[in-house]
Specification:
Layout lengths: L10 E2 L19 H21 L5 H22 L15 H19 L4 H22 L7 H24 L1 H6 L1 H23 L3 E2 L2 H11 L4 H4 L2 H25 L1 H28 L1
Antiparallel strand pairs: 1-2
Helix pairs in contact: 1-3, 2-3, 2-4, 2-11, 3-4, 5-7, 5-10, 5-11, 7-10, 7-11, 8-10, 10-11
Length: 284
Amino acid sequence: MSVLVAASSAVVSTPGSAPLQLLPAGFSVPPLPYTLALIAGVLAVAGGLYRLDPPYGERHVLAVVPWMVTGSASHVLYVVDAVPAAVAPLFGTPSVYVTTAVVGGAVWLAAAALDAPVPRTLAVAGTATATAAVGATLLGTPAPDPLLPALGLLVGGTLGLVTARVLDAASTAVGVAGRAATLAVVAHGVDGVTTAVGVDLLGFGERTPLSAAILELAAGLPTASLLGSGWLFVLVKLAVASLAVVAVAPTVHESPPQGYALLTLVAAVGLGPGVHNALLFTVA
């Protein structure tokens, strides 16, 4: 969902954005006490990781995936007013990303302090938090309807995987980046298709102005009556993700920590919104 990141593809049932608006509807800084708390958390975690100077590779990228899901599910809980008022500002847009990063970073530092394997600890803790957040989202809904959202996840993931395989065959550098590169493309396939499902099949509206412009363009084409407006957005998402992966992949060979960190970012701005879309459509 695009309330998570300004360039993502979230869709929600709200009116369209103003023509000159750059950020998605709902994007706001939390009240000052919460902002200061988040800043303090970021500084503490960033400082600890800077002093630690840990390695960062493919296993770390994969271990962060459950935390992306955690952030998505947590924001859905915020959207449906299921987060306690005392902490709700920490799960708005974009604060949910910062909150999730601070908690995940604290787990990383704790694992390092205890001499525990960091990727495994991150993955286990992230899976636990993601399961709890997704479970709370679904259990709090009297009659969740997961069929179309699940199909969106499946089709989007499949399209992303096929696209990633083509890139892998065409570029040695992408092959070196391995599963992290595949994850980044798959994430944007998921975001693109879940957005298309929401717009074309479930009647949701786009909150990010740039994404909305692409959808509006497709809606004005002769193909709209047959294919809807989401297909163009899916193609754009896969194309942009592919270009990003091709651009970043050589960095994985030259400077692995930086390269894998960039691929994590590319994956996060696709998978986070995509999972958010699917969960929101299931419970809305």
